[in-house]
Known about the structure:
Helix 2 packs across helix 4 and helix 10 (275-295) crosses helix 14 (353-364). The protein is α/β, with parallel strands linked by helices. Helices cover 45% and strands 7% of the residues.
Amino acid sequence: MTNNTVKPPPADSPSVESGITDAATGHSHEPKIRYGNFSDPRGLVVRMLRSRNRAAYSGLMREGLKIVARPADWLLSKFDRSTRTTSNSIQRPIILVVGPPRSGSTLVYQILARYCDVTYPDNLNSLFPRSSLLAMKWFSRKHPPRTALIRSCYGQTARFSGPNEGFHIWDRWLGKNRYETIESLSAETIHEMNSFLNAWTQAAGKPLVNKNNRSTACIELLSRSLPTSYFVLIQRDKRDIVRSVIRGREFVQGDKRIPWGLHSQDVHGSTDPLGYVDDVCEQVEKICQRIKHQIESVDEQRVIALDYSEFCRDPEGVLHRIQARVPGLSLCSELIAKELKPFPVSSDKFLCAEEEARMDRCLNG
């Protein structure tokens, strides 16, 4: 495998914070990259427009609306802190969906958000990064939309009421560097995080659920910092994950060789035409090993491990299993009976023959 490593972008590097993906810039021999998390932002916009995916269109629209909402967000931020509680003792569960990239975690997040009686940061809330708590209290939807729209595009969901990854919230504590693995937090930061989440769940009167890729790299840290946190761990066949990550590189970065996400490497200057396959395999292995190591340190009662295929075949059964493990979690039984059905198990399309052979050799070696 290639030994080239990519340096994370500087902390103050500009970026497009859309929640679509976690990606980073290439080596110095790459063309100059103006965004910290995307190598080809203009091309990404074009690919999203061509995707015919409503969730992709929704993500692009929100990027424009964020600019329009800035004055209101700034004004509301003056009152946001006064709405927080002084207590940092969270009374209700914080349910975090974690798992390797492209493992089905967004689908699980959407199902939990719709069919459990929970609160979550939605797409409307993401327009107010400075005043997200106050915006949640003022603009939160009291009831789910009349019809489900279980559709996503690399973490993006459709509709203002759709569950959002919440980078606008977690970045304030975990930082904006998608390549940085946070190992510790100051006591002040932990207090601030607990105070904020306590105020959110108290105002909503419900447990909070969220899926954010950064949580996967911080399971152990978050389990120690958030005493009422529970982790819904999604597991999926590694080959399907590798295939999906490679296709994701092509969609998000415009080039399979450009790194995308934690533990990925830049093979743009490599003479090996299939070096990116090795990199993605190594990336997935490292992430899976990190998850395994972190989960071992968490009380097993706070971890609900799910197989992606099992979830697709029996989503209602899995919801009941999660409910049995998380205290105070209620299901929307009428909504489940009315519309929740099994999902077709999505198995990513095969790569070309050379890529498939390289992937098998790498994963089996």
